[in-house]
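Methods — Computational structure assignment.
A single polypeptide chain was analysed. Its primary sequence is given first, followed by the predicted tertiary structure written as structure tokens.
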Amino acid sequence: MVLERLTGLAAFARAGSLGSFAAAARSLSVSPSAVSKSVQRLETQLGVPLFTRTTRSLRLTSEGQALHERAVSLLRDAEEIGQAAAATRSEPSGPLRIAASLPIGVHVIAPLLPAFRRAHPKVSVDLRLSDQMVDIIEDGIDVAVRIGELPDTRLLSRRLAPYRLCCFASPSYLAARGAPQHPDELAGHETVVLRYQSTGQVLRWRFQTTEGTRDLTPASSVSSDASEALVAMLVAGGGIGMAATFVVASRVARGELVPVLADYAVERDDITALWPSSRRANPAVRAFLSLLQHACRDRMPGAGV
């Protein structure tokens, strides 16, 4: 009975959308009489007429109009299940367009792409880096990775991994000026701040204190809208700056930067992968998201903090 009703709903959805039993039959690869009989059985089961039939037209009744969109949605879900099942048997291939903010693109995504290509040689990757927001649908992006809280969206999403925000400075700067022991002591130091490309606003520095979180914006004579430039200035002895630990991990490992106020560092969990529902079953998207999730977990530890 359930299978028969699902068959009837599929026939009803297609006939209502296409305007005839013949067109629905071609879409479903069955005969027009099979579609007509399936709809008739559904009408009997539901106890309402779904179509007004004449020799020249087929129109939805008021009851049919009320049920048609739900039937279409059910058919769409059934088709997506079929696509997902087929995708599990498919080898990733074709183009994969990835958009990411500059820090996550440079320090996390770019290093893992060679391994991804070795595992999936039939995939061609187009990596686009910018801190400006992009229209994922309009620009044909398969996966976007963003840092920060995002507005409500109908895109599919996945949080990737937490990371830490901490202050850093070069050993030479700290040798000359000393290291602050509390966020209040930053007022006596040179600082370098990051300015968001998307809004022009300066990143507020957040610290975890015994009284809770505390935000401040240091008075600074130097700002940059690129994290790589900020890090380069810190390495050159330009002062103290705040950065994500995964951005400065290699510099810390080489001894070019050291953590400052590490006891006050905060953890963030706002790196998100986004992709359109139409890419849900895309094998290349699924493979990349899986590798990205593992890479983020491996690369997000505290960088000496």
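Note: The longest helix spans residues 62-87.
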